[in-house]
Amino acid sequence: MVLKLIAVPAMASLLRAAAPGLFSWRGYCSRGSQGELSKGFVESLKAIVGSPHVSTAAAVREHHGQDESIHRCQPPDAVVWPQNVDQVSRLAALCYGQGVPIIPFGTGTGVEGGVCAVQGGVCINLTHMDRITELNTEDFSVVVEPGVTRKALNAHLRNSGLWFTVDPGADASICGMVATGASGTNSVRYGTIRDNVVNLEVVLPDGRLLHTAGQGRYFRKSAAGYNLTGLFVGSEGTLGLITSATLRLHPVPEATVAATCAFPSVQAAVDSTVQILQAAVPVARIEFLDDVTMDACNRHSKLSCAVAPTLFLEFHGSEQALAEQVQHTEAITQQNGASHFSWAKESEERNQLWAARHNAWYALLALSPGCKGYATDVCVPISRLPEILVQTKEELKTSGLKGGIVGHVGDGNFHCILMVNPDDEEEHHRVRAFTKKLGRQALALHGTCTGEHGIGLGKRQLLQEEIGAVGMETMRQLKVMLDPRNLMNPGKVL
């Protein structure tokens, strides 16, 4: 179906009408006097997906009203599990017609409150749509439904000679990764999710179906019109429901080797990162873990690494190419005082290292029982990475907050994972102040307030500072064009 455009005068009128209430809390016509969806509306949901696939139970709603962040739980009024795109389209049309907010839900592993139902409404859980519908090995592409997770996809690809490279720490759903603009440890070589999405099937807020690059198409590049695919990548569920994604795959490398090395300081570790990249070593992964995180990973994942600022590295290629890359990298790191250099060539050893890296969040949580985790991330130009990482480490020490630093430093992106007492409002305030200051430091260094976590609830002010008034107004116009009733995940991003 082709998406209709609204004429400019009509759009201007629409903006004037919608703007005053675009971000306000409001009720909707199907709510009863107790703040619940009317019985008739719930029966309409059941008529579309079947009674077993609709729930208004408090425990189910609360599970769907929060993610891994410290943002308070704000549950939806109902949760539905569609089985196919036709049901998603009918659900969207029903909600749109009744003015009921829609919150897309994948695995709930986000960290910026993106699934909180700030205005109530219907949570559409897409995990039952979990088929891999098409694999084109000769063209290096695959088509997946939204409930397919990254681990399930790579398990399916195991004997194909191909793999999907985007790997955020959690086993997130693919279309959830698309919606949040996910990244991961492989992005320095293979790119982020944005670089690996070819086409999307999207149910728009009113139920219409859009194929962002044309139905069934999976070309390598195009100069045909606006980049609609890119518009929905990172949209955080505010423009539509992603019901299918066509992804770019990569050949499995002939050989792989991983390594860890410890450094006397954060500065030395990050200087090594910059120098490795400047030397054009085709590193596949280069991750930074500070001393606090390494201590946590040693305890949680049964490693025996030095408790010091550490780099995790991985190289892909032929045996001959790997030998040269390893030699060059080892020389650079030794010039910066690296020690405890350890190479892992066997898959079991490599998997243990990367499992420990991916579980750093849970490792740090284990150091502070009873605390909640709060993760924030920024991304800066590579040349400014040593400056901001050293500064952040010092400020974390002096802040009195508990936490560690990890990062995909190969592309200038790093995370602070902070442990927060959920009952200590003063500590919450210090965490918010710390993260806002970090975001502004990244902006001052010509970076971004988030490299991969997204805006969600917590970084809307920083987004405005990053892209400016004209950028925000352009985003609002796009939102109004596609979602004039502000029903798609309201309260997020804008």
Record field, number of beta strands: 18
Major beta-sheet overview: 7 strands, antiparallel
Percent strand: 15-25%
What is the 3D form? Answer: globular
Main-sheet strand order equals: 15-12-14-13-17-18-16
Distance between the ends: 28 Å
List the total number of helices: 16
Helicity, as a percent range: 25-40%
Give an overview in words.
Helices cover 37% and strands 19% of the residues. The chain is an alpha+beta fold and 494 residues long. Strand 17 (402-408) and strand 18 (413-420) form a beta hairpin. It is globular. The model is unreliable at 1-34 (pLDDT under 50).
Strand-helix topology:
Elements: H1 8-18, H2 39-49, E1 54-55, H3 58-63, E2 78-80, H4 85-98, E3 102-105, E4 122-125, E5 132-136, E6 141-144, H5 150-156, E7 162-163, H6 174-180, H7 187-190, E8 197-203, E9 209-211, H8 228-232, E10 241-248, E11 250-251, E12 255-262, H9 266-278, E13 283-289, H10 291-301, E14 310-317, H11 319-335, E15 339-344, H12 347-358, H13 360-367, E16 372-379, H14 385-399, E17 402-408, E18 413-420, H15 425-444, H16 460-482
Helix pairs in contact: 2-4, 9-11, 9-14, 10-12, 10-13, 14-15
Key structural traits:
7-stranded antiparallel β-sheet; 494 residues; disordered N terminus; alpha+beta; single chain; 37% helix
Give the gist of this structure.
With 494 residues, the chain is of the alpha+beta class. It has helices at residues 8-18, 39-49, 58-63, 85-98, 150-156, 174-180, 187-190, 228-232, 266-278, 291-301, 319-335, 347-358, 360-367, 385-399, 425-444, 460-482; strands at residues 54-55, 78-80, 102-105, 122-125, 132-136, 141-144, 162-163, 197-203, 209-211, 241-248, 250-251, 255-262, 283-289, 310-317, 339-344, 372-379, 402-408, 413-420. The longest helix has 23 residues, at 460-482.
